[in-house]
Design brief:
175 residues; alpha/beta; 8 helices; binds adenosine-5'-triphosphate; binds (3R,4S,5R)-3,4,5-trihydroxycyclohex-1-ENE-1-carboxylic acid; binds magnesium ion; Shikimate_kinase_CS; metal-binding; aromatic amino acid biosynthesis; kinase; P-loop_NTPase
Length: 175
């Protein structure tokens, strides 16, 4: 079983994904992590040196590979849904959960973060709002389920995802 998490930067894909994998006894994979292993530097450095298009090419390859490695929880990069090929591949091969967060909430979480290249701008909140406008429809098109992340803690969100997967018959109900 492949469970895929999509959502904006800071929506909790890595944090929720890691805990979800532990609870389900599945390996946890993070496409950003595999990309960094492949390019041999941070995504931020690669963006600055090679540009976004080169990054998206590598991201597409890594996503194709990660959807074929067998059962796991896969956290995708925030921009993975930009390419139609990725949207199709993720939706076809996995059970896709969209962790939806309002841009204002993401701004609160990420305002001290210096690693997310798309947010290294004068007005990160405005940037997050623009990213939300552009991507919310793409996350919805890709996903099977939407989970609102505004208030719940990470462990509550893990329970919410598990409950949703049980209701859908993707997971066996817990005794
Ligand atoms: N539900 C939540 N409540 C409060 N803080 C959260 C929640 N989910 C994530 N966080 C915090 O927000 C920050 C970003 O989370 P995380 O790195 O998991 O996001 P991400 O979706 O993987 O981002 P990216 O797309 O950039 O990889 C972390 O510091 C994390 O601890
Ligand atoms: O939102 C995005 O476009 C990105 C999010 C990160 O997860 C990384 O994949 C990269 O920084 C690009
Ligand atoms: Mg992440």
């Amino acid at each position: 079983m492949l469970i895929v998490l999509v959502g904006l930067p800071g929506s909790g894909k890595s944090t929720v994904g890691r805990q979800l994998a532990r609870r389900l006894g599945l390996p946890f994979r993070d496409s950003d992590h595999d990309i960094e292993a492949r390019i041999g530097c941070s995504i931020r450095e690669f963006f600055e040196r090679e540009g976004e298009a080169a990054f998206r090419d590598i991201e597409q390859e890594v996503i194709r590979e990660l959807t074929q490695v067998g059962p796991c929880v896969l956290a995708t990069g925030g921009g993975a849904v930009l390419r139609p090929a990725n949207r199709e591949q993720l939706r076809r091969t996995g059970c896709v959960v969209y962790l939806r967060s309002a841009p204002e909430e993401l701004f609160r979480r990420l305002r001290h973060d210096s690693q997310r290249p798309l947010l290294q701008v004068a007005d990160p909140l405005q940037r997050l709002r623009a990213l939300y406008e552009e991507r919310d429809p793409l996350y919805r098109e890709t996903c099977h389920y939407v989970i609102e992340t505004g208030r719940p803690s990470v462990s509550t969100l893990v329970n919410m995802v598990m409950m949703q997967l049980e209701l859908a018959g993707v997971l066996q109900p817990r005794p």
